[in-house]
Automatic annotation (TrEMBL):
The keyword Signal applies. This is DUF481 domain-containing protein. InterPro entries: DUF481 (IPR007433). The keyword Signal applies. Residues 1-18 form the signal peptide. Keywords: Signal.
Amino acid sequence: MKILLTAALLFFTLTTYSQILKVDKGELDADSAEYFIGNINIDFNMNNRSSSADQDITFTGLNGKADLVYMSDKHAYILINNINYFKSTGGPLISTGYAHFRVNWLRKKTFSYESFSQIQYDDGRKMPMRRLLGSGVRWQVMNTDNSQIHLGTGVMFEYEEWISSELERTLVREIWKNSSYIGFDANINETVTFNGIAYFQGGMDTKSNIFRSRFSGDFSLSFTLTNNLSFSTSFSAQYEDRPIIKINNWVYSLTNGIKWEF
């Protein structure tokens, strides 16, 4: 399954348009219909900042994002893809990725509805599989020429697999959770845009009899170079209050790269 997911994510990264912030931008004209909009963002970094001349260590990272949106007369169909590879000399190849599909029903309304599903893996955190399915409501709080703010909340069912080194087996959790978010988009001037989204997901783990919650966010600052090309700096972070296995509660990434929009 992971091989198929990796292949699909890589295919979309190299041929098409993270979480919802990339597709809730003001450029999606609510009065227009029957068109596609897309975005490709590829970041690559490599360095050999070793601590000494005798210690030759090279760090290599590749991150690709590819999202595609189809705007019908009444609804919006959104496909979001992200894949990341990281390798250091002597260390294992770490790969993470997800594919997220979302439908915004009655998108022109101030209050609309959403259905979503996602498949994901994270080798670095020993999570070979995560699947979720859910739905909710979306509120367009503000929508002007230069800024947009939206809120969303709903219910989702989450399935996760975690590899426990201590127990030497895979732990499975199936949890019903609330999924809520706040997103924004701001055109600072004609060439600079800033957008982001913050999520809260929490629910009762009946198998362990504890409440588990997760906070995550994605933020992006873009500088327009041409009509279709821009330079972007992106920051992503995630915090889990009670992880299922012993891992870092807090993880983050900061990337710079080139983004092509169509």
